[in-house]
Amino acid sequence: MDLLINVGLPLSLAIIMLSLGVGLEIADFRRVVSRRYPFAIGAFCQVILLPIAAFTAVKLFALPPEIAVGVMLLSFCPGGVTSNILTKLAKGDVALSVSLTAIISLLSMVTVPVLAAWSINHFMGEDAPEVSITGLAIAMFLITTLPVAIGVSIRHFAKGFAERVDAPLSKLASILFVLIVLAALAGNWEMFVENLGLMGSALITLNIALLLIGLGLARAVNLSWNESKTISIETGIQNSTLGITLAALITSTENGLSPLALPSAVYGILMYVVALPFIAWLRRS
Fold first, then answer.
1. What pLDDT digit, counting tens, does each position of 187-202 carry?
2. Closest among 13, 23, 24 to 174, alpha carbons compared
3. Where are the strands (E) in the chain, listed by range?
4. DSSP3 helix / strand / coil % (the chain, rounded to 5)
5. Do the Cβ atoms of 219 and 228 come closer than 8 Å?
6. Most CB within 10 Å of its CB: which of 10, 16, 197, 244?
7. What predicted TM-score, i.e. pTM, was given to this entire model?
8. Backbone angles phi and psi of 24, in degrees to 5
9. 3-state secondary structure 95-158
10. Rg, Å, the chain Cα set
């Protein structure tokens, strides 16, 4: 268990982020300049609207402090590779999705540590573990920003190699993710069972609400239908592996994974239950 947490968890996230970077080109970052308005709407949804919606859900469902923090941590995480894949399945604007994922993932090194420290102090009060914003920022850089940068560099200087390793990297990351989710559930089984009904209801409600809010806002500001699909998915889909990793980094639990990781682990499963029917509807629309 300790080997999985201390090695497998950060390794899995680093591989996921490396895989994301390998699929990116410099043009994906340049595209943000030429498509400022759709990008700004997507960034607003992810960085501002999403945490507000999560905070509202946590209060409405009166979740226990540790579970509430876990939901907030999840809301701070960008979509990752999953949102890009789902956007493609929905026949959305894949280029916009990739651009949003790339930039927001890089920004998370700054935004996530600050927001995580605030949410822990707000919900846990005197029971809050000490959080080093600087230490968390460095960890975020090493396991998210740096792998993305390395992946982009590999694709830029060795495109053929990048295309060959992209699929194997994604498969390896998926296997590690499943093991981590199982570890998170097994290590906190009693709390998981006690809070599954309430936590599951909150996460499903939040997931559905975010998908619809993202879609509605995009349509309200006159984005195209394909752009609106993308904003919806980027708003409603989070990187649950990053959420689990954040929980482990914050609490430094020696035996098993922190209860703060439970919402991300449960969401990693429920996300597909909610998203896939929605994606099928978007694809037909």
1. 667 777 777 788 889 9
2. 13
3. none
4. 85, 0, 15
5. yes
6. 244
7. 0.84
8. -105, 150
9. HHHHHHHHHHHHHHHHHHHHHHHHHHHHHHHHHCCCCCHHHHHHHHHHHHHHHHHHHHHHHHHC
10. 18
